[in-house]
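Private note to self, pasted from the team thread so I don't lose it. Backbone tokens:
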């Protein structure tokens, strides 16, 4: 796929941060329609105005992606009012940190993290994937996961679990599509380290791993998505962590990742852990 020109693109968590940049990129490339989902109505309306002023054909829906009912209702509206989605970007996510697992007193926080980061992409994709398959045209699904889904990390137990689940699901769907011969639909799983969206304020830097710029993540993700490549691990140290976790004995792995700062990266986390992307 050269671009999303003429395609219908849906982005979740599209009012701010990465989601807004993805939506803007779709408008820039001449998407036929760009559909924005977000829970923040005010920010969503502001983004819609900006993108419409830039010449985009845009529509917005206030959707709480932690709710299966809300997802089903909004999906039906999109299919009825806009039509089939050809490019789906599952970007909405929530960050929870600060506490050790046994210190989490609010069970709802655990359920919310799993619902938004793990279950929502599954439910949303289930709504739009059948039409993608049936279309026979080039379609794309991009799932924004995290390098936290590749390596264990103290104070991120639930978040890591949610991203491990997202990665396992996302890449399994990719393989299912290939196995079933539905080669027109490609799935890309994106696993970045910490990004400067404000959601990771206070997270400590890791050796040789700077805080990623939003534009850098969007550029890399967009290119991989268009090519239909299965994974983007960014930066290169995310790949290194995955390798170390796979080949080293657990004790040596823990020693190395502790010393380079991975296991202490959330010690002083202060980010907006109640906000969705």
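Design output:
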């Amino acid at each position: 796929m050269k671009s999303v020109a003429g395609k219908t693109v849906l982005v979740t968590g599209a009012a701010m941060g990465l989601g807004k940049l993805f939506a803007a990129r779709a408008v820039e490339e001449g998407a036929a329609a760009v559909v924005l989902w977000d829970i923040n109505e005010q920010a969503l309306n502001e983004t819609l105005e900006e993108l419409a002023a830039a010449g985009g054909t845009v529509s917005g829906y206030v959707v709480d992606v932690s709710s299966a009912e809300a997802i089903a209702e909004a999906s039906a509206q999109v299919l009825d009012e806009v039509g089939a989605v050809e490019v789906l970007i599952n970007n909405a996510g929530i960050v929870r940190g600060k506490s050790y697992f046994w210190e989490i007193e609010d069970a709802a926080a655990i359920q919310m993290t799993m619902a938004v980061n793990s279950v929502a992409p599954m439910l949303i994709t289930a709504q739009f994937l059948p039409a993608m398959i049936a279309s026979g045209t080039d379609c794309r699904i991009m799932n924004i996961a995290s390098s936290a889904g590749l390596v264990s990390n103290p104070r991120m137990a639930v978040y890591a679990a949610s991203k491990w689940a997202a990665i396992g699901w996302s890449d399994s769907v990719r393989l299912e599509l290939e196995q079933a011969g539905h080669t027109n639909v490609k799935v890309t799983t994106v696993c970045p380290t910490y990004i400067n969206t404000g959601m990771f304020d206070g997270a400590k830097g890791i050796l040789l791993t700077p805080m990623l710029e939003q534009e850098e993540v969007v550029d890399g993700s967009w290119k991989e998505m268009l090519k239909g490549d299965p994974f983007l691990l960014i930066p290169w140290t995310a790949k290194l962590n995955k390798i170390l976790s796979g080949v080293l004995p657990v004790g040596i792995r823990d020693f190395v990742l502790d010393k380079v700062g991975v296991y202490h990266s959330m010690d002083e986390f202060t980010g907006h852990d109640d906000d969705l992307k």
